[in-house]
Amino acid sequence: MLVQYFCNIEISISEKLGHITIREDDDSGDKGITQNRLVSTTINGLLMESNTVLFSQFFEPNNEPGHMRGRGLIVADFVDEDERHPYRPQKRVRRDINAILELTSYTRKVAAIGGTFNGLQNTGQDESVVVLTRWVFSQLHRPSFSVSTGNWEEMRDNMDRWGETMHRTMVESLTPNN
Q1: Is the pTM here over 0.85, yes or no?
Q2: Which run of H or of E encompasses 110?
Q3: How far is residue 166's CA from residue 156's CA, in Å, rounded to a whole number?
Q4: How far apart are CA 6 and CA 103, in angstroms?
Q5: Crossing angle for the helix pair 9-17 and 149-174, nearest 10 degrees?
Q6: What is the C-alpha to C-alpha distance for residues 95 and 97, in angstroms, rounded to an integer?
Q7: Are 141 and 94 a contacting pair, CB within 8 Å?
């Protein structure tokens, strides 16, 4: 599900952030490897580009806590130079991303309604809890044209919203339709 999100990230960004985002690459779709060459237009009309390669792998279950059902790992790294899709600092602000995401699952007892936190009355039933641990480093590069302080602030604020968009999309896909 998380890999699917990254394969269609331009759709989620456009829908949830209001930035028109297009994919400029023709990702080959190799198993476990995805390239995202994206160009977004901010609300103020500034063009921002990123070129990131994602590597994903599922690890089989083992006896470590959180790994008993297996775990997923996604590592993202920005592409520094790309002859096929060069950066355009005269027209766009470049955004580099490094990220590590780990998806694990735990089982816990379901607390009874009215149960207390410390006294934890439980129903005897188990429930699955999915945990996404995320580390992200993002960097904006100064383009060859001037950018107002307000535009820098918008881009900085939107960097955090990309992560929120991913989280919101995951929750939506895990929530059963009513």
Answers
A1: no
A2: strand 93-111
A3: 17
A4: 14
A5: 110
A6: 7
A7: yes
